[in-house]
């Protein structure tokens, strides 16, 4: 067997390449005992607890609420100045003790570890971050987007933004303040000191109360508009591979190849895993590799059930496909796509395309579904061309170039126009109604 030499704190070696050392089986029992003692010390000194986990800044509460049930493991206290090696060492220790972990487990840890996860230590959005979202590319996106939630028979509504953090798609850009109920809601994770279902409170620039919740079940039950913009693509996915023995789950294991720059590698499970038990494949699906986010399915089921029971609608916008893609898991580091997901753990975002066919299948029992349609088609159906012409007539000429290039990036098939998809949920009704954006303006 192999001993992991640089797992625990303050373990430094001159030759970092020599990370593994073959040892005799006689030392095996002693090594495991010492390793468990080290783990016990970490539990006693550094266990943060679920309550403190939720206090971590900028973490998606929906994601955290699921992670807390699956990952109640101890966290080593790290400063924000420590490198990704700290997270690697933690993962190596975990795998050394319990064996290969799921890809979903790896993603969840790398993204939401409370002290060294990607979303925990810096602002990852915008020019200074690793990627820019649609609202930051052009103001036209928000102006067109806010035309979507218009229901003639509804006087007030709750607006719930399901987001991975304080997103650039601000609720006040989506609807006018006269349309909001007493509270606009965001499912993001800020806790306050009381025990109310709303974990934090604030006031918008329109003097509208804003409440934060860590799970959808706590949001008041009423007619609601749900917005999920670039949220589901960061939820953990399980990966499955078709083999001669049938479907098997792809796991993450230690990489013992000293010539490789990575500490981890993919491996195919030798026997069925718990996730494989609930994994279902359509008999007409010809893919030999499938990614599936069970967390996304659980959230979609809750959201669509709330719409069915209380009324309302939802708009989902994300990188995605309609059940035809296979291996889409990738990293984003400094605005560049990183195909190797094991590089820079904790410093690179991990994302996988949303399977809208899977989402549609989960929600179909509760709501009417429209889409998916491409972002280019959605925005053009919403009148982005008309809005661009109006803006060009009312702004200084030096701003024309930025407005035109920003609009092109949003709708061009070679840029974001095809890769982003939009889907809408509506409460099942007897009326034949198609939401704006999902039919041509010429119809």
From TrEMBL:
GO biological process, one term: mitochondrial respiratory chain complex I assembly
Pfam families, per the entry: Methyltransf_28 (PF02636)
Gene Ontology annotations for the cellular component aspect, listed alphabetically: mitochondrion
Its EC number(s): 2.1.1.320
GO molecular function: protein-arginine omega-N symmetric methyltransferase activity
Catalysed reaction, written as an equation: L-arginyl-[protein] + 2 S-adenosyl-L-methionine = N(omega),N(omega)'-dimethyl-L-arginyl-[protein] + 2 S-adenosyl-L-homocysteine + 2 H(+)
Superkingdom to which the source organism belongs: Eukaryota
InterPro entries named in the record: NDUFAF7, NDUFAF7_sf, SAM-dependent_MTases_sf
Cellular location(s): Mitochondrion
Alphabetical keyword list: Methyltransferase, Mitochondrion, Transferase
Role this protein plays: Arginine methyltransferase involved in the assembly or stability of mitochondrial NADH:ubiquinone oxidoreductase complex (complex I).
The family this protein is said to belong to: Belongs to the NDUFAF7 family.
Protein name: Protein arginine methyltransferase NDUFAF7
């Amino acid at each position: 067997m192999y001993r992991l030499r640089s797992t625990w704190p303050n373990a430094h070696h001159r030759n970092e390449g020599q990370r593994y050392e073959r040892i005799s089986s006689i030392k095996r029992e002693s090594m495991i005992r010492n390793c468990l003692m080290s783990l016990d010390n970490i539990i006693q000194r550094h266990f943060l607890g679920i309550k403190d986990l939720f206090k971590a800044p900028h973490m998606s509460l929906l994601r955290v609420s699921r992670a807390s049930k699956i990952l109640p493991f101890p966290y080593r206290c790290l400063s924000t100045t420590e490198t990704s090696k700290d997270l690697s060492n933690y993962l190596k220790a975990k795998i050394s003790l319990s064996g290969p972990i799921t890809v979903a487990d790896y993603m969840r840890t790398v993204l939401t570890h409370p002290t060294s996860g990607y979303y925990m230590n810096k602002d990852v959005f915008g020019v200074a971050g690793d990627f820019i979202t649609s609202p930051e590319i052009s103001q036209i996106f928000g102006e067109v987007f806010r035309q979507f939630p218009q229901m003639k028979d509804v006087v007030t509504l709750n607006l719930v933004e399901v987001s991975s953090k304080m997103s650039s798609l601000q609720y006040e850009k989506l609807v006018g303040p006269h349309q909001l109920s007493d509270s606009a809601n965001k499912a993001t994770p800020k806790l306050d000191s009381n025990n109310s279902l709303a974990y934090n409170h604030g006031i918008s620039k329109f003097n509208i109360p804003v409440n934060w919740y860590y799970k959808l079940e706590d949001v008041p039950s009423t007619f609601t508009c749900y917005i999920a913009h670039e949220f589901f693509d960061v939820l953990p996915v399980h990966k499955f591979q078709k083999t001669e023995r049938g479907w098997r789950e792809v796991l993450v294991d230690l990489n013992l190849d000293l010539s490789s720059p990575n500490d981890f590698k993919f491996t195919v499970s030798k026997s069925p895993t718990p996730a494989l038990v609930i994994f279902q494949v359509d008999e007409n699906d010809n893919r030999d590799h499938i990614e599936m986010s069970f967390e996304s399915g659980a959230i979609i089921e809750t959201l669509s059930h709330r719409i069915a029971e209380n009324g309302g609608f939802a708009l989902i916008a994300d990188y995605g496909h309609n059940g035809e893609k296979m291996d889409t898991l990738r990293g984003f580091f400094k605005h560049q796509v990183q195909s190797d997901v094991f590089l820079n753990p904790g410093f690179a975002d991990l994302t996988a395309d949303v399977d809208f066919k899977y989402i549609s299948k989960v929600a179909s029992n509760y709501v009417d579904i429209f889409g998916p349609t491409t972002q280019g088609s959605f925005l053009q159906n919403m009148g982005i061309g008309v809005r661009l012409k109006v803006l060009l007539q009312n702004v200084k000429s030096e701003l024309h170039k930025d407005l035109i290039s920003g609009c092109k990036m949003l709708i061009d098939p070679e840029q974001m126009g095809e890769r982003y998809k939009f889907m809408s949920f509506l409460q099942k009704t007897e009326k034949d109604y198609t939401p704006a954006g999902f039919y041509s303006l010429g119809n």
